[in-house]
UniProtKB/TrEMBL annotation:
Belongs to the class I-like SAM-binding methyltransferase superfamily. mRNA cap 0 methyltransferase family. S-adenosyl-L-methionine binds at K54, A72, D94, D130, Q152, Y157. InterPro entries: mRNA_G-N7_MeTrfase_dom, mRNA_G-N7_MeTrfase_euk, RG7MT1, SAM-dependent_MTases_sf. Residues 15-28 have a biased composition (Basic and acidic residues). Its main location: nucleus. mRNA-capping methyltransferase that methylates the N7 position of the added guanosine to the 5'-cap structure of mRNAs. Binds RNA containing 5'-terminal GpppC. Its EC number is 2.1.1.56. MRNA binds at N50, N51. The keyword Nucleus applies. Keywords: Methyltransferase, mRNA capping, mRNA processing, Nucleus, RNA-binding, S-adenosyl-L-methionine, Transferase. It comes from the Eukaryota. This is mRNA cap guanine-N(7) methyltransferase. One of its GO terms (cellular component) is nucleus.
Amino acid sequence: RKWNSFDESSSFADESTRKARKVADHYSARSNQTLEEREASPIIHLKKLNNWIKSVLIQRYARRGDAVLDLACGKGGDLIKWDKAQIGYYVGVDIAIGSIKDCRTRYNGDADQQQRRKKFSFPARLICADCYETHLDEYLSDDAPFDICSCQFALHYSWSTEARARRALANISALLRPGGYFIGTMPDANVIIKKLRDAEGLTFGNSVYWISFDEEYAHKKFSSSSPYGIQYKFHLEDAVDCPEWIVPFHLFKSLAEEYDLKLVSVKNSHAFVDEFLKMPEFTELMRRLGALGDGNQDRSTLSQDEWDVAYLYLTFVLQKGGESTTR
Ligand code: SAM
């Protein structure tokens, strides 16, 4: 299958797409870390915890042979997780051309890697596009239907305008088969807004992150105006430094219903860890990843500040209507 890149000049016309470009530039500029650099990261255990959360979601919902659509796939950090789930086909889409290139390298394996590990067992197509503007439903119609759509740590980039939030859901709904699942992780707006209310000013955080609202956006949140475009700046050491948007979950849930996507579950990451860390197969996975010490609720290797960042996120599962299969 051929590689696609999109025409940047025509894709970034108005204010919202200009902001999307800013996000894309940020992620494109982030270079691949060596193993040593990664292990030295101040948020290494948070990264491992997030990998565990994504692995649990994937293991619970993916089935052998599934066709998977990974929206905002980044550098392909989840490819191995999908491989373990023995999926049959993978399409990854990301707005950042640098990330798509890294993802391609990871998928193909560089010269060294090719000798060390076997290739991924599923065919893949990787595309550079704005998932919240492009009509992926038309563009990927030959690849559809998908059994699973995944959007990890990225759906909040669609809430800059109502049109983009709707485009995201229209794409997902059109490309999923009846009964297919939409799984993901994104910031927990309830937690962020509570922290903003408790903060003395418009900024709060700890040693590894800070969130800062402009006067204009903080005011917007507290008034009853549009729920879209509530912007804040998010900085996470060694990871993120760009504008993001609040996604009020109850509104996301109702909007998704308009696209025949019904909520199956939503959990803050803390509750998610509490629930799934008890299960032996996931305890073992946590032990292997090394995010939480022994994996028996002991957070000795994860700092309190990293654990506080985990609290800023939630996981969600939605199901496309039309068939009552359960997983
Ligand atoms: N999903 C990957 C993961 O979990 O490792 C990457 C997560 S990273 C925090 C956020 C990703 O969202 C970045 O790769 C970024 O380029 C991508 N992204 C942001 N806005 C996007 C958009 N409008 N369309 C497609 N990808 C987008």
